[in-house]
Design brief:
This protein has 229 residues and is α+β, with helices and mostly antiparallel strands. It has helices spanning 30-46, 72-92, 110-122, 124-127, 142-145, 158-161, 167-180, 184-196, 203-212, and strands at 14-19, 49-56, 60-67, 104-107. Strands 2-3-1-4 form a four-stranded antiparallel beta sheet, sandwiched between helices. The chain is globular and about 50 Å long. This is Transposase.
């Protein structure tokens, strides 16, 4: 069955996942993480893509981003993907692909899922058993949102600004949100929607998105189409 074209809509947040081929490591040293972050910063600014959250894991990475144009995210991912593979292959004296095919992504309803997606992303290292709490992991957006360090790559979404009237209030609210965690069901729908490319949101949100694109954005019902009577 032919795969669906990737869904990208300007002005909406997108959850993006890029995996290493065959689950292989995509970072071999601290410098590799820094290089990928620098590339993401350069190309996201160039293509006018706001990155709200990220995490770089040993064999994959997540982004939560809103593009100003339909071409923004594809351009960023293509440019960064190609440049980083050249860099990594040269550094490791290797050849061939590094990525597990094209990146996966979907749109999420900001009002319903944005904060949950941010927490889901920042909690990846904890779920993987790499650290006991997200502030101990250096390669995610959590440090900035918790007020521990600046991060030029991150552009907070307007919904984050609504978490408090002062930086301290927002930081405390976000830390509490992450400490509360993400339910197993939220983890499932956030992961599955990105990997399968189905829009994630309430029915009215999905219906509005469908009017903006010819690409099918939800899973088709199984069985034969119903006949009109």
């Amino acid at each position: 069955m032919a795969r669906l074209p990737r869904l990208t809509v300007a002005g909406y947040p997108h959850h993006i996942i890029q995996r290493g081929n065959n689950r292989q490591a995509i970072f071999a040293a601290t410098a590799d993480y820094e290089v990928l972050l620098d590339m993401l910063l350069e190309h996201s600014k160039k293509e006018h893509v706001a990155i709200h959250a990220y995490v770089l894991m040993s064999n994959h990475f997540h982004l939560l981003a809103t593009p100003d144009t339909v071409e923004g995210i594809p351009q960023v991912m293509q440019s960064v993907g190609r440049r980083y593979v050249r860099y990594f292959n040269q550094r490791q004296s290797r050849t061939g692909t590094l990525w597990e095919g094209r990146y996966k992504s979907t749109l999420i309803q900001a009002e319903r899922y944005l904060l949950a997606c941010m927490a889901y992303i920042d909690l990846n290292p904890v779920r993987a058993g790499l650290v006991s709490e997200p502030g101990l992991y250096p390669w995610s957006s959590y440090g900035m949102y918790a007020g521990r360090r600046p991060d030029r790559l991150v552009t907070p979404h307007p919904i984050y600004w609504e978490m408090g009237n002062t930086p301290f209030a927002r930081e405390a609210a976000y830390q509490q949100l992450v400490q509360h965690g993400v339910s197993a069901e939220q983890q499932r729908v956030l992961t599955d929607s990105a990997l399968r490319g189905w829009a994630l949101g309430e029915p009215d949100y999905v219906a509005d998105l469908q009017r903006r694109t010819e690409r099918r954005i939800t899973k088709a019902r199984s069985g034969r189409p119903r006949k009109e009577i």
